[in-house]
């Protein structure tokens, strides 16, 4: 068993955000104001002042555990990904059948 507790963040297409974790994890969801790039330091300063004290100690680059962009995912995107994965799986099988894939060679992936 891992000593690190997993946390799952789910971002819905309408902007709704959910955080899933064990009851021993305390989660705070915040949103920075939308600003021009030159004003990002002001948004960060706002965050520092608006955060409850217990969360301020977490807001440091060396404590960042994950980052991503929230983007819209449609059913068509999922179907295309499924199709692409099926093609890659087929290519991997062809290489294995024909013996063209060397032992330990990387498989096709997305």
Please state the structural category.
mainly alpha
Proportion of beta-strand residues: 5-15%
The number of distinct helices, counting runs of at least 4 residues, comes to 3
**Largest sheet data:** 2 strands, antiparallel
Run of helices and strands: EEHHH
- Number of structural domains: 2
Shape category: elongated
Instruction: Give the low-confidence spans.
Output: none
Mean pLDDT: 86
Please give the radius of gyration in angstroms: 21 Å
Proportion of residues in helical segments: 25-40%
What is the element layout, followed by pairings?
Layout: E1 8-11, E2 17-20, H1 40-50, H2 53-56, H3 75-98
Antiparallel strand pairs: 1-2
3D structure, described in words:
It is built from 3 helices and 2 strands. The chain has helices at residues 40-50, 53-56, 75-98; strands at 8-11, 17-20. It has a two-stranded antiparallel ribbon. The radius of gyration is 21 Å and the shape is elongated. The model has no long low-confidence stretch (mean pLDDT 86). Helix content is 35%, strand content 7%. Strand 1 and strand 2 (17-20) form a beta hairpin.
Core attributes:
110 residues; mainly alpha; 2 domains; two-stranded antiparallel sheet; 2 strands; 7% strand
Task: Summarize this structure briefly.
The chain is mainly alpha-helical and 110 residues long. The chain contains three helices and two strands, in the order ββααα.
